[in-house]
Amino acid sequence: MNWYVIYTKPKWEKKVAEQLAEVGIESYCPLITQVRQWSDRKKKVEVPLFNSYVFVRLEEADRNQVFQSPGAVRYLFWLGKPAIVRDEEIAIIKKGLDGSGSCDVSLHPFQVGDTIALQSGPFSNQAAIVQEVNKTHYVVVLESMGCVLKMRK
Fold this sequence. Notes:
By secondary structure, the protein is mainly beta. It is about 15% helix and about 40% strand. The strands form 4 sheets. Strands 1, 2, 5, 6 and 9 form a 5-stranded antiparallel beta sheet that branches. The longest helix has 11 residues, at about 85-95. The chain is globular and about 50 Å long. The mean pLDDT is about 85.
């Protein structure tokens, strides 16, 4: 069984994950807690880490079952085929969000184009390329995972 990525309607990530779980499809919607401020109060809310995306684990032949959920729009494709996410990558995301370990980040004066190895945290031992250096942050690209990280100085 492979992990696939489903594109959902905006703000439907949690609903789609719940609906898929009800019909017996293993799904994963990584959530982070953010503090949101309204005019009269602040509140902690759980929001999806990836907007409009939910990971599902199922057999290739059962891929159309996800469309039983009205919020599921389509699969994410890569090179003309449905994108498959490796189990290790899902484990890295889960490990990064469990909050059990603290990570120390030390930043050195990197230059754009430098290749660095992240030494701690959920992305430890991953190679990254420095894409942007700013007064307040660095932007690095994790090519193996196809994602961009913004790290504060």
